[in-house]
């Protein structure tokens, strides 16, 4: 706690989640001193900042963003925006990533967040410290960071918000016999545009949003694409250059791919659209009572708080969500914990609730890698957070969109734009 008696908070990451934390802390000057936001790059926006380079940046750190040149949002702006900061009404519903970046830059500038960001700064370690002198017995957080010039800095905080995202460490599945494949193997994290792949044969592994989107881009650049996945046949038409296939089970000695149905195919490129791992290199997760797996971090009470350390928050780890709405609700719930508005149960009770929720999902057949997927369940989650902190900012608008059952559908479009995305009103 600062000399003024106000709480001091560290924010790791200046993407959408980190900016949301900073904005709400700055709006409460009687409770919090201005935050310190640590940002690895020299810009805000996180994954929404398009970086054409792949590999490492000028400072030798891995390129964070997985953004590709022509990406458009797969959610309409009407459900993407922060509740108190709408998008430009002149923009279309489905935005180019550059429009989202400009939105976040405007959000940052409008709330005067930039002066509180330490750019080009890597967080090396975050660890809890029990104070033995002043405020004896109080838990503080030591944050060790290193700036662009190499100087190491250590600062103390009452709370830490982890907002470093989870779309930067590629998940590479184990494929038996992959050493026999002599072509190019790459993850979608390093994909930027389709032109270099024109005329090539490509196996795209994974039919999530990026797998489907990239397959369409490649086909429109005259590549022949085999979209390999374990889902039912996709319920919409694909370009002529894309055919669906069963999952890859192995690579044979001649370099060909064998699929689950026994069919074979040769290809020049294997594109892995297989998602990302959770990684927090600055945390000693086991010491914090946490298990960090490829697709899961647990236990987190309300998908946010480690029961053993309730002044540490992981914002935005859930998947299949309306992200900015999600961040906004989580941040205000977390700040209510810090200011005492929300009283948490005991550690044992929180851990018990997390185990119960995971068990219920397992009994419904939810795989471990999907335990953090919210989808339609997110709305009840937001309502619960809002009710807990007596906060309803933006809730009615988002709930209305859900209750009207609006659906996002993909409609084939012209060669200029690979797909036209529309909102279709469902039953009222």
UniProtKB/TrEMBL annotation:
* Cofactor(s) listed in the protein's UniProt record: FAD
* The keyword Oxidoreductase is annotated on this UniProt entry: yes
Q: What is a GO molecular function of this protein?
A: flavin adenine dinucleotide binding
* Annotated EC: 1.-.-.-
Xref: InterPro entries: FAD/NAD-bd_sf, Flavin_mOase, Flavin_mOase-like, FMO-like
Keywords for the protein's UniProt record, in alphabetical order: FAD, Flavoprotein, Monooxygenase, NADP, Oxidoreductase
Please name the Gene3D superfamilies in this protein's record: FAD/NAD(P)-binding domain (3.50.50.60)
- Does this entry carry the keyword S-adenosyl-L-methionine? no
Indicate the family of this protein.
Answer: Belongs to the FMO family.
Q: What is this protein called?
A: Flavin-containing monooxygenase
UniProt organism field: Chanos chanos (Milkfish)
